[in-house]
Amino acid sequence: MNTILHITKRQQWEDAKILGSYHADSLESEGFMHCSKSTQILKVAHRFFNNQKELVILFIDSEKVQAEIRYEEAEIGELFPHIYGELNIDAVYQVIDFEAGEDGLFELPQEVINLEE
Q: Which pairing describes strands 79-84 and 68-73: parallel, antiparallel, or unpaired?
């Protein structure tokens, strides 16, 4: 299984489960949904989700995603997975809570560390 990760607000994910598919705001504004590999998730969290609460990480089996996935270079020179369409919720096999610590920084959850092993 090839896992990619996506950070979102817990309520957006809860709504998606009722609707049967998920889409991030960036799908409308940029044409795709931002995802990360396990080695990139902390950089993304610190850059885009600083001081946000009620977050979750979606663990996505990229082989089950019905929309196109492209690995594209970001401004920091790394390739990031982007989903070009709505995410079918059956591609998400795990969801974990993701909150910054008291210092405002995120720590890599054990479930993400396990992906790297």
A: antiparallel
| Range(s) of the domain holding residue 8 | 3-116
CATH value at residue 63: 3.20.170.20
CA distance 80 to 87: 16
3-state secondary structure of 113: helix
Burial zone of 113 (CB within 10 Å; 0-12 exposed, 13-18 middle, 19+ buried): exposed
Q: What is the pLDDT of residues 60-95, one digit of tens each?
A: 999 999 999 999 998 778 899 999 999 999 999 999
- Our count of domains for the chain comes to 1
Pairing of strands 87-88, 33-34: unpaired
For 29-42, how does the pLDDT look when each residue is reduced to its tens digit (9 = 90+)? 999 999 999 999 99
Helices (H) and strands (E) in the chain, counts: 4, 8
